[in-house]
Design brief:
Elements (H helix, E strand, L loop, with lengths): L1 H36 L2 H32 L3 H33 L11 H22 L2 H9 L1 H21 L4 H33 L11
Helix pairs in contact: 1-2, 1-3, 1-4, 2-3, 3-7, 4-5, 4-6, 4-7, 5-7, 6-7
Length: 221
């Protein structure tokens, strides 16, 4: 009976990870749509909806505390529960990065684009795929998929480096573009951090499944 209750609680925690992962994925999608369409109203909705993600994280962290207090899990079960707490924190911070993009879009309302938005949507697509796959790997406790997620962070880092170089060249060529270029750099930085957070989730998956914590991305912190 006690074990049945514990399994239901674990299922609830995993469902929370899935639900919050979906919420964050949607926030990133909406933030990037707002950027591409220069839609300040949609950007404001992204900013406002971040409180829902924060509330979801708070509820899940409380449930983790309840499970630890009621069940006192050991070994792999303990690693799984503790990993949920860390993953929910990373998801909440991904939501913050999506909110950050929304805030940037609001600041950019009347700015001309200093370069076509080609690499940023590609970067966002990679970040969202990493997020979805990282969450799936955790729920399925799929170590191989987790390592594949970590390996893909290099793609995001390469895109970030290219965007950074391109925007620096734009600013050097025309100092009047410094502010709008900086705003696009901030967007790229938020997307790069989302990739790092997805890698953190992948690392937690390997830890919960094997007891070993790999370091897939030395820039992640």
């Amino acid at each position: 009976m006690v074990r049945d209750v514990f399994h239901r609680q674990l299922g609830t925690l995993q469902d929370a990870v899935l639900e919050m992962g979906s919420m964050v994925d949607r926030a990133i999608e909406r933030a990037m749509t707002a950027l591409l369409d220069r839609d300040a109203v949609l950007a404001e909705q992204v900013v406002k909806n971040d409180t829902v993600i924060n509330d979801k994280n708070f509820a899940a962290q409380n449930e983790v505390i309840n499970v630890l207090g009621q069940q006192a899990p050991l070994a792999r079960d303990l690693r799984l529960v503790v990993s949920v707490a860390a993953i929910m924190t990373d998801l909440e911070r991904m939501g913050d990065h999506a909110e950050g993009i929304g805030r940037i879009v609001i600041m950019m309302q009347d700015e001309p684009l200093v370069k076509p938005l080609i690499d940023l949507p590609i970067m966002a697509g990679h970040a969202r795929e990493m997020l979805r796959d990282a969450v799936h790997a955790f729920v399925e406790q799929d170590v191989d998929e987790a390592y594949r997620v970590g390996a893909r962070d290099d793609q995001i880092d390469a895109l970030y480096d290219r965007i950074y170089r391109d925007l620096i060249d734009v600013m050097v060529a025309d100092p009047s573009t410094i502010e709008p270029s900086t705003h696009l750099l901030w967007v790229a930085h938020n997307l790069e951090r989302i990739g790092d957070r997805a890698t953190n989730i992948a690392e937690r998956t390997v830890y919960s499944a094997t007891g070993k914590m790999p370091q897939m991305d030395v820039s992640s912190h």
